[in-house]
Amino acid sequence: MKLFCFATLLLSLALAYYVYTPMPETISEPWKLMILDAAIRSTMHVGAFLQTLGICHQVHVVRFVQQMQPMPSGDTKVQDLTFAGVQVRVYEGTGGEEGRLRRGMVFLHGGGWALASTKERSYDHLCRKMADELKAVIVSVEYRLAPEVHFPKQYDDCLEATKHFLTPEVLALYSVDPAHVGIAGDSAGGNLAAAVAQQISVDDTISVKLRVQALIYPVLQALDFNTPSYQQNHNIPILYRSSMVHFWLEYLDADRTLIHTMLINNHTAKDQKALSKHRAKFDWTALLSPEFQKNYKAVVPRKGSPKILKKVPALLDVRAAPLLAEEVVLQKTPQAYVLTCEHDVLRDDGLMYARRLEQAGVKVTSEHYADGFHGCLSFASDPIKFSVGERAVQNYISWLNDNL
Ligand SMILES: *[C@@H]1O[C@H](CO)[C@@H](O)[C@H](O)[C@H]1NC(C)=O
Known about the structure:
InterPro entries: AB_hydrolase_3, AB_hydrolase_fold, Arylacetamide_deacetylase, GDXG_lipolytic_enzyme, Lipase_GDXG_put_SER_AS
Active site: 187, 344, 374
Oligomer: single chain
Keywords: Cell membrane, Endoplasmic reticulum, Glycoprotein, Hydrolase, Lipid degradation, Lipid metabolism, Membrane, Microsome, Signal, Signal-anchor, Transmembrane, Transmembrane helix
CATH architecture of the domain at 73-221 and 316-403: 3-Layer(aba) Sandwich
Bound molecules: 2-acetamido-2-deoxy-beta-D-glucopyranose
Membrane topology: Single-pass type II membrane protein
EC number: 3.1.1.71
Strand content: 15-25%
Strand order of the largest sheet: 1-2-4-3-5-6-7-8
Distance between the termini: 66 Å
Number of helices: 16
């Protein structure tokens, strides 16, 4: 009996240690987030273990767990189709006025270019909600993922599917008004949405243009992993700084061991001549307002690892890092909605892009959640619901309703 009590005590302590993560006081529902984070971490750990044993890739374990969640249902018409060779899930909201053209949206889900899918519970739920509340047609793109494919395949899939939807014939087929089509995405999907929006804006062969781009805590650059938000939130669930760098290396199919040197910005040290023409585009000391800079210091090593930018040229490719676009390109992009969360390593990616769009003359709505954390929009409905997630989804859809 004594032994049993002792073992129980030890096990509880180990569990508490595993679950407990210090949280900032201002974050939404810290205890719930701690438990959610522990669940995600344990999935990742089991995945890493199975990968070490050579049984499967870590990503496959995470995907398996994601698929176990119950699926929403409702009246929305949902069809799995192929647009220009790319799988898409099309949602058609009901209840629009008879004979009137509808609004259209392309939606690109997040997941570090490696996880999730259009069919995942939270994304499926969000797209149904968008379709119903906006009485719109939503095209959620099932772009291929890492580790099976790498950059630029994810981007290409999204671009091709979007171009297909934007053709006048296809829009007519769905009764969508060509003047009212937008694009949106969260996290890595926000990265893809920003990149696709840029390309559509400069491609003269595409006659129908996007009306809005809605970027939800987008990832936009891989040149500075020490922005104030990366420094401040490096250990905040559910996206740790090291996980974000890892997602980048996997997406760009770069040597995974570069993580250590890139975490300290060795790839963008002062001795990188190739970077001089880009620096101003991601210089947070100029692009962020002082309230976000706080007392953080820029991390620019004097000497670094000069070969990285040559070995991984995609780090400077605007299709991977939309923040590096020239102002003449940004000028042409549509009206923007940029959602950022205080407790998110990617906060400053979004804030810097919003600032650069504004400087280029684009109309921008910046919505910042002081209690938000990365991924919160995916936790806006049962069984895992956060107040900040619910608020953010509602405000995002209401912005689309007013501006799309
Ligand atoms: C960063 O670059 C410096 C200078 O080349 C090098 O001495 C150091 O080992 C690098 N750091 C890492 C973690 O690779």
